[in-house]
Amino acid sequence: MPHDHTPRTVLVTGATRGIGRAIAERFVALGDRVATLSRGTEVPDGVLAVPGDVTSTEAVDAGFTAIENELGPVEVLVANAGITRDGLLMRMSDADFDDVIDVNLAGAFRCARRASKGMIRLRRGRIVLISSVVGLYGGAGQVNYSASKAGLVGMARSITRELGGRGITANVVAPGFIQTAMTDALATDQQEKYLGAIPAGRFAQPDEVAGVVEFLAGPDAGYISGAVIPVDGGLGMGH
Ligand code: NDP
């Protein structure tokens, strides 16, 4: 732990695998008190696993209360839980559209709303919403997903306007192609197509996103809010 680091209570949604897991591991390594709200319970060592589905307001509120009772008020929220239900617009079902919005966008809203109560009392807080390059770049077959991820930008900026005067920041991290279960599910030809378009010429590891989240939650980022930080090897050219 850095010698001058004051441990914080950090909640990362969806830390059972992939990017969320890497983010949770980062904060554990820093010496923070880390919890996750996920449907699964396979979490990194040192992380308090609170079972919960972000599509349920009751589960989110109960999960926050359990975390606060155990670890104290949540000072850093990383809304990471996300899903894809890809398909072409013409054939996309209402359920596939609604499910993605419910987890990715409304799930982040439910967590941010509940987190804001404690942060306002603390008079400080950091909210980081995990979006995607696809939010602003678009993605064929991802009308639902890109709409949900673009929505997070408006959400972070509105939170910034509402709560910026209370020591609370809200930012968006927009990863590009990160090697996780979500991207392993893409067809090889699709992966090759992306690889050809990424100036860095490679995909990233989840820990490369975790480092940016650590920065946004840290002391040097206190004056950054409403920003979209791409971690995409140049794919979106900074949007
Ligand atoms: P994974 O599918 O590997 O992990 C998703 C996590 O979200 C899991 O821990 C899962 O846990 C959790 N989750 C899913 N639905 C719910 C729910 N309803 N309630 C609570 N937790 C839920 O995805 P990645 O790590 O790849 O992605 C993480 C985030 O990063 C997502 O928001 C994704 O959109 C975004 N992203 C990923 C990119 C990539 O290249 N991988 C690129 C850009 C953005 P469980 O199933 O146990 O509930």
From TrEMBL:
- Report keywords, A-Z: Oxidoreductase
MF terms in GO: oxidoreductase activity, acting on the CH-OH group of donors, NAD or NADP as acceptor
Under the heading InterPro entries, the entry gives:
KR_dom (IPR057326), NAD(P)-bd_dom_sf (IPR036291), SDR_fam (IPR002347)
CDD domains, alphabetized: BKR_SDR_c
Q: Which family does it belong to?
A: Belongs to the short-chain dehydrogenases/reductases (SDR) family.
Its Gene Ontology biological processes?
fatty acid elongation
Q: Which PANTHER family does the record cross-reference, listed alphabetically?
A: 3-OXOACYL-[ACYL-CARRIER-PROTEIN] REDUCTASE, CHLOROPLASTIC, SHORT-CHAIN DEHYDROGENASES/REDUCTASES FAMILY MEMBER
Pfam families noted in UniProt: adh_short_C2
Where along the sequence do coiled-coil regions lie?
none
Species name: Salana multivorans
Please list the residue ranges annotated as the Ketoreductase domain. Answer: 8-181
The protein's name:
3-oxoacyl-[acyl-carrier-protein] reductase
In terms of superkingdom, the source organism counts as Bacteria
